[in-house]
Write a structure and sequence with these properties.
This protein is an alpha/beta fold and about 260 residues long. Helix 6 links the parallel strand 7 and strand 8. The model has no long low-confidence stretch (mean pLDDT about 95). The structure holds adenosine-5'-diphosphate (ADP) and magnesium ion. The site of magnesium ion has 3 residues, from helix 1.
Length: about 260
């Protein structure tokens, strides 16, 4: 599996004779098992970049390819989790998770079997029959992730999936997503504007800056693998290497802000 973006630019129409350059010359490769995190202030084009990968839109210039084939639209090989969970309020938990499989025409027994497996992966096995509106925000977000994974995508795309959660729930969810990433060996593209979250979760970090949206810095990161090798999340985040990296990235972001102001 390889998703390749080459020299992609995106212009949005903005009023008469005017365009917003949301992305400029984006080059990015997501390979099998990568956990790529995009970090940047609001408006730097993160969601636009995710839309290109998801196939919700095409670049104005440049290319997006999955395994050598141009991405021409959304597809089963790419699943998206948004900040707002977008669950169906009239369906219970298991039918929400099985929803994509139903759209594919899969029979009830089989899709419920797959949904159950993914609920267990996210620690939700006891809530299969619950209406989704009874669940907490963190649990609803886990249902959204289970639903995305149930369709067995090659890449899981997440746009600030944990942004609405309180600090403790958010840390738990970060750790859970990393464990699932390890277990399923999926490729992940995750958007966040939390520096700590980006550093903790990614194997590859891209830092973006606005007007026009560009990738200004790239880093390879060791921290998620340290967590998965047995250190606690808190140990990793309090380690000198993590703190040094956090300062490096914060300096970049503040410098970009000062330049943009
Ligand atoms: P981010 O997710 O990093 O906050 P976005 O990708 O949503 O950034 O937006 C990047 C830029 O493109 C912003 O300046 C935003 O206002 C603009 N933009 C996004 N979507 C549209 C749209 N549909 N029409 C016009 N401009 C848009
Ligand atoms: Mg966004």
């Amino acid at each position: 599996m390889a998703l390749e973006i080459r020299k992609a630019s995106v212009f949005y129409p903005a009023g008469r004779d005017h365009k917003v350059e949301a992305l400029r010359y984006i080059d990015l490769t997501i390979e099998q098992g990568d956990f790529v995190v995009a970090l940047g202030a609001s408006g730097c084009g993160k969601s636009t970049l995710l839309s290109l990968i998801a196939g919700f839109m095409s670049p104005s210039f440049g290319q997006v390819q999955l395994d050598g084939t141009p991405v021409a639209g959304p597809g089963r090989d790419r699943a998206v989790v948004f900040q707002k969970h977008a669950l169906m309020p009239w369906l219970n938990v298991i039918d929400n998770v099985a929803f994509g499989l139903k759209l594919q025409g899969m029979g009830k027994a089989e899709r419920h079997e797959i949904a159950r497996r993914h609920l267990a992966l996210l620690g939700l096995q006891d809530f299969a029959a619950s209406p989704v509106y009874n669940l907490s925000g963190g649990m609803q977000q886990r249902v959204g992730i289970a639903r995305a994974l149930a369709c067995d995508p090659k890449i899981l795309l997440m746009d600030e999936p944990l942004g609405a959660l309180d600090a403790l729930t958010r840390e738990r969810a970060q750790e859970l997503i990393l464990k699932i990433w390890q277990e399923t060996e999926k490729s992940v593209f995750l958007i966040t504007h939390s520096v700590e979250e980006a550093l903790f979760m990614g194997t590859k970090l891209i830092v973006m800056s606005p007007r026009p949206g560009r990738i200004t810095h790239r880093f390879d990161l060791p921290f998620s693998r340290r967590f998965l090798a047995g250190e606690t999340g808190r140990e990793v985040k309090a380690s000198p290497e993590f703190i040094a990296m956090r300062e490096t990235v914060l300096k970049i972001i503040f410098a970009d802000e000062a330049q943009a102001a």
